[in-house]
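Re-running the complex after MR caught last week's input typo. The corrected sequence lines follow. Everything else is unchanged.
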Amino acid sequence: MILKTRFKAIVSKIKKMGYSLTPQRLEIIKIISESKNHPSAADVYNKLKKLYPMVSLNTVYKNLSMLASLHEVREIKTMQNSVHYDGDISLHGHAICEKCGKIIDVEINELDFKGFFETKIKKKLTENYNISNYGIEFYGLCAGCGKKAVSVVG
Ligand SMILES: [Zn+2]
Ligand SMILES: [Zn+2]
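Corrected-run output:
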């Protein structure tokens, strides 16, 4: 249900901004709005290729960057400098493993965040800035990599 809503929201934004809706673009939007595992452009490309073998990775990149610039998709960078995409733009953070690059969602209470943002951040920024987007990232070691690190030390 929620995923369908995301798909529709992105499509209507694209239309509003005057971009054309090619079948490939629609499919990219479908893939990214249904993905829960923060895919890379290559992941999206591999899925898309099954339906559109002639499509290039560059096309996928361009489309995802365009969606990111419209704030319909979030870009997440890992320590390995690979970029992943999230079609879920609702308020949440990401825990990113410094070793394997695994990204997991971190739930953030909207009221807590609003309180913090309005009182601590916005006041300092509003005069010079018009905030359009934000990212909440935490870096560390995932459970699997943490265990390995500990056993190496021990
Ligand atoms: Zn890891
Ligand atoms: Zn996410």
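None of the earlier attempt is carried over here. The longest helix spans residues 110-125. The chain has two domains: 1-89, 91-154.
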